[in-house]
C-alpha cells in the first residue's frame, strides 16, 4: 500500500466515526417536545457496540490483507500470477519504463519483477505465465546489444509458449525507416510460438505520451482496476547553469561548449559514469534532450559537452540553444538523470579501449575519470575530431592523465589536417595488432559519439580484425558497449 493512501484512508474512516458519534450525542442532547430520550437497555447497547466493533475489524482485516498482498508482490516473483517485466534497452529508457511498470503493479498488490533480456534464459521464460516486454529499437532497425544472447540462445530454440500471456511495449522513433522493428519482431516471435497476446502491441514514437497512457491503462486492467500508484514518471528536479566555456574557438566545426549544472536547493545528485542527463526545455513540456554526462558526482556538478546545432532555417536547436546561448548563468531548468546500465564500467581492472569522436568525448571522459579514481590505469583512448589546433576538447586534462600514467595510450586523430587526415576507424585498423593484444588480455571496448560514420566504421574494423563471431561474443559478454546517437 502506498504511503499516500494510508492517511487518506485513515482520515476518511476517522471522519465517518466522528460523524456517527456527533449524531449520537446530538440525539441524546436534543430533546424536542414530545420526543424523550430513553435508555435503550443493555442488550441494545451491546448490539450497537458489536456492530461498531465488527465494522472496525472488517476495515482492519482489509488493510492487513492488502498490505500482505503488496509485500508478497514485491518479494515473490515465482507465484503463478506473477508478472515478469522484461526490458531490452540500449540507452536506458526501456529500463526506466520497466521499473515503473513493475512498481505500479506491485503497488496494486500484483506480484511483479524486472529482468534485463540479457539475463533471461529459456527455463525462466517457460516457467513464466505472464510477461510484459519493453523493447527499444536501435541502429537501423536492430535489437539493442544486450538482446544478442537471447536471440541466439532462446529465440533460436523451437520452444512452445502456449501457456504464456504477454504484452509488448515497443519503443522507437518514426524518423527511422524501421520503426519499432525489434518490438515488432519480438511480438511476432511470441505469437508464432503460441503465446497469447493480452492486448495489441503498443508502439511508442519518441516517448509519445498518448501511447504510454494506453500502456498505463492496460496495466490497470491487469491489476483489476486497482489504482497504480507506482506509475508516476521519476520526478524532474531543478538544475542551475553554473558554468559555460567555448572549447573550440577558431574551429571550422560548430561551436562546442563545456557546460556545468548543479541541483538547486542542495542535496547531492547521484549517478555513475555512463549515465545520461535528460532535460526538459522551458516553454515546451514535451521536449526532452539527452546528453552523456562528462563528470562524476565527486566533481560537484554535471558536466556536459554540448555542440551548438542549428536548424535548416538557421535558428538554434532547442536543447543546445538553451545550454549554449539562451540560458544565462544562474538560470534554471528541470531535468533528471537517467541510468544507462549498458554503458557502465566493468568492476575489475581489465584493459579498456575507449573510442569516440566529437561530443562523444563526454561519456568517455566520465568513464576515464571513474577508472582513474579506482586506480585502474590500463586505458587506451582513441579520439577523433577535425583539427589538432582547435578541436581537442579537455586537452590539458588528457595530457595530464597521460603524463601521470593513468592514460597508457592516447591517440588523437584529425579528419581535416591535410595529408595526415584520418578517422578513428582508420587508426584502429593500423593499430590492429595492439587491438588484438588488448582484447586477448580481456579488454572491454566502449564507443561513444556519432552512430553513422564513426560507430559503423569502427564496428566494421572491429569485425574485420577480431572476426564476426569474436565481436558477437564480446557483445554478449558485455565487453563491447556503445552509446551512440
Ligand atoms: C542510434 C540510434 C538508432 C535508432 N534506431 C531506431 C530505429 O531503427 N527504429 C526506431 O524505431 N527507433 C530507433 N531509435 C530510437 C530509439 O528506439 C528510441 O530513442 C528509444 O526510446 C530508445 O530507448 P532505449 O533508451 O531503451 O534504448 C534509434 C535511436 C538511436 C539513438
UniProtKB/TrEMBL annotation:
Q: What InterPro entries does this protein's entry cite?
A: FAD-bd_FR_type, Flavdoxin-like, Flavodoxin/NO_synth, Flavoprot_Pyr_Nucl_cyt_Rdtase, Flavoprotein-like_sf, FNR_nucleotide-bd, OxRdtase_FAD/NAD-bd, Riboflavin_synthase-like_b-brl
Supply the name of the protein: NADPH--hemoprotein reductase
> The Flavodoxin-like domain covers which part of the protein?
83-220
> Its Enzyme Commission number?
1.6.2.4
Q: Which GO terms describe its cellular component?
A: cytosol
Q: Where is the FAD-binding FR-type domain?
A: 234-346
Give the enzyme class. oxidoreductase
Residue spans crossing the bilayer = 44-62
Q: Which residue windows are coiled coil? A: none
- PROSITE patterns hit by this protein: FAD_FR, FLAVODOXIN_LIKE
